[in-house]
């Protein structure tokens, strides 16, 4: 089993039991999915640059990426209808926990001058979103990033089953996400 799954089962549930006074095991918040979202820049929204963005997301997550298309045309943002705009991956179960473990141990410590995540990343109850400006943090992309020449960042969304923002904060901080105090 994964290290974080064992940590959740044996330590986090006991911590949350004392802090939030749960009476049933089913009341404990769980991590339901992690969504990785990569938006293509306007200058790279052609057919030649779709494949590198898909490959980058597949290398980071270890899972097949899905293209997202525009639903409406918008002249202000230079968007045409049914054109690819971004790609995403939804991680669940073992893939989700292995990505979280790798992200917490390898990628977050590489961020320069990292003070911790702001509590404003907790958008609503059960969700936490953060953005990574540079893709060079991921060791899978060290050799191939210069070939792709992609200048966009990655959005990471953690979705939990918590009911309130306090539960979400306590759960994610006990999982290992460093929040500012």
- Major beta sheet, specifics? 5 strands, antiparallel
CATH class of the domain at 33-110 and 120-161, please? Alpha Beta
Please state the overall shape, judged from the principal axes of the Cα atoms.
globular
Q: Might you state the CATH topology name of the domain at 33-110 and 120-161?
A: 50s Ribosomal Protein L5, Chain: A
The stretches of 5 or more residues where confidence is low (pLDDT under 50) are none
N/C terminus separation: 32 Å
Fraction of residues in H or I helices? 25-40%
Broad structural category: alpha+beta
Question: What is the CA-atom radius of gyration, in angstroms?
Answer: 18 Å
Q: What is the helix tally?
A: 5
CATH architecture of the domain at 33-110 and 120-161: 2-Layer Sandwich
Helix-strand topology string: HEHEEHEHEH
Mean pLDDT: 79
Number of strands: 5
Task: Tell me the CATH superfamily of the domain at 33-110 and 120-161.
Answer: Ribosomal protein L5
Lateral strand order in the biggest sheet:
2-3-1-5-4
Strand content: 15-25%
């Amino acid at each position: 089993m994964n290290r974080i799954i064992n940590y959740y089962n044996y330590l986090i549930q006991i911590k949350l039991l004392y802090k939030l006074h749960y009476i049933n095991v089913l009341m404990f918040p769980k991590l339901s999915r992690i969504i990785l979202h990569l938006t293509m820049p306007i200058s790279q929204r052609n057919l030649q640059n779709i494949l590198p963005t898909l490959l980058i997301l597949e290398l980071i997550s270890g899972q097949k990426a899905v293209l997202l298309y525009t639903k409406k045309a918008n002249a202000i943002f230079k968007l045409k209808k049914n054109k690819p705009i971004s790609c995403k991956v939804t991680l669940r179960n073992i893939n989700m926990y292995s990505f979280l473990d790798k992200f917490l141990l390898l990628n977050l410590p590489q961020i320069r001058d990292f003070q911790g995540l702001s509590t404003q990343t907790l958008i609503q109850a059960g969700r936490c979103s953060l953005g990574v400006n540079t893709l060079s943090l991921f060791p899978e992309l060290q050799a191939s990033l210069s070939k792709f020449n992609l200048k966009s960042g990655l959005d990471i969304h953690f979705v939990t089953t918590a009911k309130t923002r306090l539960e979400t904060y306590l759960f994610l901080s006990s999982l290992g996400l460093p929040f500012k105090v």
